[in-house]
Amino acid sequence: MIPLKDSIKSRSLPILVFGLLFVNAVVFLFELTLQNNLEGFINLYGFVPKRFFFYSADYTSFFSLSRFLPIFTSMFLHGGFIHFLGNMLFLWVFADNVEDFFGKIRFLILYFSSGAFACLVQGLTSVKSPVPMIGASGAIAGVLGSYFVLFPYSRIYTLIPIFIFPLFVEIPAPIFLIYWFFIQFFNGSLALAGAVWTGVAFWAHIAGFLCGVLFALFFGKRRRGFY
Questions:
Q1: Burial, 86: exposed, middle or buried (Cβ in 10 Å; 0-12, 13-18, 19+)?
Q2: Does 224 fall in a domain?
Q3: Which pLDDT tens digit goes with each residue over 147-192?
């Protein structure tokens, strides 16, 4: 299912959402210019579990900036057009109302704390992996989790491709997000059991979503005028 838009109009201009879309786009375009140097760039700024959880000569101490910085820089890297466009679409559809509700500072805290938590949880599922983890999906999953709590009456205009025929339907946001979460949990369980490997960080999605849910439950006192 591909979300196209939701039924709730934000009451203010989502400046941070526009900013995140812009920065992600600039970084992705920069990646496209690297060609043969892209692998080294991804390895340097992506989150590598083995390098984080075990000793590395790259670090002067456990709290070295170079150990923790990739947790955040990895959120702005993507592995191709589909990866980039999919993440930006979900950010565009769901994040404006969440930013509107929380305000700028809390929205940034939600985004980066969800992304960091998602990154670490996914890393714990493969602590010896030398493969860099990249993508904004853990942070965006946090936005989805908060949206699930804050806007239970919203509806998502959705494209469902059926073979070559597009089907456009309106789905209640909780149903859409529960279905999305179930897919992540189902595939994540298979990946954890070693039954399938897709290269998708399903547990980052799960962890980010749950972080967003908890954030909204803690900070999300309902404001009048939101439905």
A1: middle
A2: no
A3: 999 999 999 999 888 877 788 899 999 999 999 999 999 888 887 7
Asked, for residue 9, whether it belongs to a domain, the answer is yes
Q: What's at 110, amino acid-wise?
A: L
Measured CA to CA in angstroms, residue 136 lies from 31, 87, 156, 201 at distances of: 15, 7, 21, 11
Report pLDDT digits (tens) over 115-145: 999 999 999 988 888 889 999 999 999 999 9
pLDDT at 224 over 70: no
For the chain, how long is the longest CA-to-CA vector?
56
Q: Domain total for the chain?
A: 1
CATH number of 161's domain: 1.20.1540.10
Structural domain containing residue 210: 2-219
226 found inside a domain: no
Q: What pLDDT, on the 0 to 100 scale, is given for residue 110?
A: 97
Least confident of 3-7, 64-68, 143-147, 171-175: 64-68
In a domain, 79, yes or no: yes
Computed from CA positions of residues 30, 3, 143, 118, in that sequence, does the dihedral angle turn out positive or negative? negative
Cα angle for residues 145, 136, 139 (degrees, 5° grid): 30
Encoded tokens for 47: 């989150």
The alpha carbon of residue 137 and the mean position of all alpha carbons in its chain are separated, in whole angstroms, by 2
